[in-house]
Amino acid sequence: MKAFIYDMDGVIADTEPVHLRAEQRVLQKMGVEGVTLEFLMRYQGMTDLMMFEDMKKLFGFHHSAEQAAEAKVYLFNKIIHEQHVTPIEGSLELIRATNELRQSHGLKTAIASSSSDDFIAFVVDDLGIRDHFDLLMSGTNLPESKPNPAIYL
Hints:
- By secondary structure, the protein is mostly helical.
- The chain has 2 domains: 79 residues, Rossmann fold; 68 residues, DNA polymerase, domain 1 (Orthogonal Bundle).
- Helix content is 49%, strand content 9%.
- The protein contains 6 helices and 3 strands; from the N terminus they run βαααααβαβ.
- Strands 1-2-3 form a 3-stranded parallel β-sheet.
- Helix 1 crosses helix 4 and helix 3 crosses helix 4.
- The longest helix is centred in the middle third of the chain and has 19 residues.
- The chain is elongated.
- The two termini are 15 Å apart.
């Protein structure tokens, strides 16, 4: 094994509940009622822009997908900065273990996430694990994010 690649949301950090609440609130503010958390879960792992482009087709709200994505990011950041990041149980121990392999055997470590560069930086800094990774990669820097496998290459 030469590298260990982590996803972030739902693997390192328990951010999915906050993402879901922010998405639901944005849709409500756009006049889209009754969207359940279960429905929103199908978009986990996608960029906000991809998700809201699909939802605009489904629900026909008047705002652009870009405006919806920006509103969601703003609301998400507001919520998460008020409460800090909750690590997934066992994730920090695994990261520390792979960091030992990184130092002793040259194993490379990375985060591959659909979240923005700024949010990835916030999470690793809030959890105190930035120096445990060789690379932090956001799908927003690629032509196509997950589920496209390019982020892992």
